[in-house]
């Protein structure tokens, strides 16, 4: 995953912290629990993903220049290289004797499993979204877990913490499986939460449909994700998430689909050469066009023209 915020000038005074492994099996994951009595923690950033869950009490999380009160049942994710800080809650009763569970892991810890767990992508949409770039004040970079989901997540964290501290044979595999399950559950909750906020979801859905219409009308032109996000008036990271949530596809996949649909129409309705059609639908390379057409349509452009010319 490309980290556009890695080298931001404003982060220069905050050197990334690396994951400190336990020295036993050296699995790239660390689980800790700490009392909110040790707060405040200094502003910092790290080169790994950090999941924070409030087991008890409350705290204040600062990210992107904004502070958010978090209490029991809240889970918030800090992606790599983004500075943040955890402070005592402004609510004295919530700040007393609070407990925070941290589940830290290097992205490569789950990369080998990532494609096998499609729903885990929802987690990364949540984890890597940069909500502090979104101007909507009520978009919060954390989720509140309640009811059976809260109990299930706490059970996962308890079991993972026990495995990590006891370090029995195979504990690394158990922790990885628990982490993957946690990613799926949090990803599902995130998808539900963003759809539940009807006003913001509907408004942003309309913005996504505006981009879809723009793609239909301007598909021969070069259109970047940044261009599409500007049209929607959303931050690129938030736009990525919303577009996938609304269409089920990434913007690049959708634009490719539009271009190939027009290519299919031209192949069957005109005598234009494959090279001319390639350029007319927005491809800069015939080789890329042929490869993409074969991969998605299942036939080469020439085969498609031959088999569907009378369709």
How would you concisely characterize the structure shown here?
This protein has 311 residues and is of the alpha+beta class.
What does this structure look like?
With 311 residues, the chain is an alpha+beta fold. The chain has twelve helices and ten strands. The strands form three sheets. A five-stranded antiparallel beta sheet has the order 2-9-4-7-10. Strands 6-5-8 form a three-stranded antiparallel beta sheet. Helix 6 packs across helix 7, helix 6 (198-218) packs across helix 8 (236-247) and helix 9 (251-269) crosses helix 12. The longest helix has 26 residues, at 171-196. The protein is elongated.
Order of helices and strands: EEEEEEEEHEHHEHHHHHHHHH
Give the CA-based shape. elongated
Strand proportion, as a percent range, falls in 15-25%
Alpha-carbon distance between the two ends: 41 Å
Would you tell me the overall average pLDDT?
81
Reported for the largest beta sheet, the result is: 5 strands, antiparallel
Unreliable spans are 1-6, 114-121, 128-139
Number of strands: 10
């Amino acid at each position: 995953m490309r980290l556009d915020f890695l080298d931001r000038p404003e982060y220069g005074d905050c050197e990334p912290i690396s994951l400190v492994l336990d020295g036993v099996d050296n699995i790239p994951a660390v689980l800790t629990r700490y009392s909110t009595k040790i707060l405040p923690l200094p502003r910092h950033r790290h080169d790994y993903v950090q999941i924070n869950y409030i087991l008890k009490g409350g705290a204040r999380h600062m990210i992107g220049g904004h502070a958010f009160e978090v209490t029991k049942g809240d889970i918030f994710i800090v992606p790599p290289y983004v500075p943040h800080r955890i402070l005592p809650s402004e609510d004295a009763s919530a700040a007393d004797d609070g407990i925070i569970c941290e589940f830290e892991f290097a992205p490569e810890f789950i990369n080998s499993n990532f494609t096998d767990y499609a729903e885990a992508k929802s987690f990364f949409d949540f984890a890597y979204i940069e909500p502090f770039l979104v101007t909507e004040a009520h978009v919060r970079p954390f989720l509140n877990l309640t009811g059976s989901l809260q109990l299930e997540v706490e059970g996962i964290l308890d079991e993972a913490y026990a495995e990590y501290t006891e370090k029995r044979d195979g504990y690394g595999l158990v922790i990885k499986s628990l982490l993957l399950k946690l990613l799926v559950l949090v990803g599902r909750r995130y998808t539900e939460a963003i759809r539940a906020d009807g006003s913001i979801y509907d408004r942003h859905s309309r913005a996504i449909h505006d981009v879809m219409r723009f793609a239909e009308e301007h598909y021969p032109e070069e259109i970047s994700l940044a261009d599409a996000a500007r049209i929607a008036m959303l931050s690129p990271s938030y736009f990525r998430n919303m577009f996938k949530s609304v269409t089920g596809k990434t913007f690049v996949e959708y634009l490719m689909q539009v271009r190939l649909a027009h290519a299919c129409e031209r192949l069957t309705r005109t005598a234009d050469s494959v090279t001319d059609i390639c350029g007319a639908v927005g491809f800069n390379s015939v080789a890329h066009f042929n490869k993409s057409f074969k991969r998605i349509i299942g036939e080469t452009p020439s085969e498609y023209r031959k088999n569907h010319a009378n369709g």
